[in-house]
Specification:
Blueprint: E1 3-5, H1 10-17, E2 22-24, H2 25-29, E3 36-41, H3 47-58, E4 65-71, H4 82-88, E5 89-91, H5 92-95, E6 100-105, H6 121-134, E7 135-141, H7 143-153, E8 158-172, E9 186-196, H8 199-205, E10 209-214, E11 218-223, E12 229-232, H9 242-252, H10 278-294
Binding site for substrate: 163, 192, 249
Pathway: Amino-acid biosynthesis; L-methionine biosynthesis via de novo pathway; O-succinyl-L-homoserine from L-homoserine: step 1/1
Keywords: Acyltransferase, Amino-acid biosynthesis, Cytoplasm, Methionine biosynthesis, Transferase
Length: 305
Amino acid sequence: MPIRIPDDLPASNILKSENIFTMSESRASHQNIRPLRVLILNLMPKKIETETQIMRLLSNTPLQVDIELLRVDARASRNTPQKHLDKFYGDFERIKSQKWDGFIITGAPLGTIPFENVYYWDKFTEIVNWSRHNVTSTLFLCWAAQAALKILYDLEKVTRDDKLSGIYSHNTHHHQHPLVRGFDDQFWAPLSRYAEFNSNDIQSKTDLTVFADAPDAGVYLAASPDCRQVFITGHPEYDANTLHNEYLRDIEEDLEPVLPVNYFPNDDANQAPRAIWRSHGNLLYNNWLNYCVYQVTPYDLTDLK
């Protein structure tokens, strides 16, 4: 939460220049406060696991957040009980007339499938285009980031022969920007994808700012100038064992996966992995929620354009 300080306090401008979360007395006295409304489109197979991971990060803030879960595929799930889906997940038709403070669209295990062959591609495209005018800020994760870059910028993904799987070290850029406030110069983040985007391509072909990338994995974090679209090509929400479980799944499906890099101690899959990215994940979600949503969303969401 922001600290409330007098308008003319000398520290005010200094703190603002350092992107410290401050609020002037004059603004605070006129501030209306309400819960933030955040919509989550969960495309992952194990929906209960994914929703828990994301909500864990969203809960690590003093801001009050109301969550609504959304699905795009009405087919029966092999990994989530139907009762759970029917009880907790809504359909797009029911919510599309509403406005939202924030929107999170998860990844999906569709890395090697052409976009046009995805079962729900048309509906997904409609949702992404709808979000531009009905959501203050949308956070696209992994596959959703790849798909949204295609829809919004006609940017083609480069599909690798080998999967980027493991914990990768990324470099932070534009430290003065609130989205990466508090980031170390380098940080670790989980990746699990076949696609990659080159920083030079994104910067030359779009208006996006690249805030983090890795020499061996490409762009990790990018955003539009107004931060209404934020793209994360990894999974800061992952638990310690998530990549392990995906590795075992790929083995069972005869995909001959490579061992996730920088993940198992001594590269021994029999040893328990350790999470070394939690602080980054929490900070990224906090910055997004505070600066891209809370600080700019209108009190009356009907005013959102």
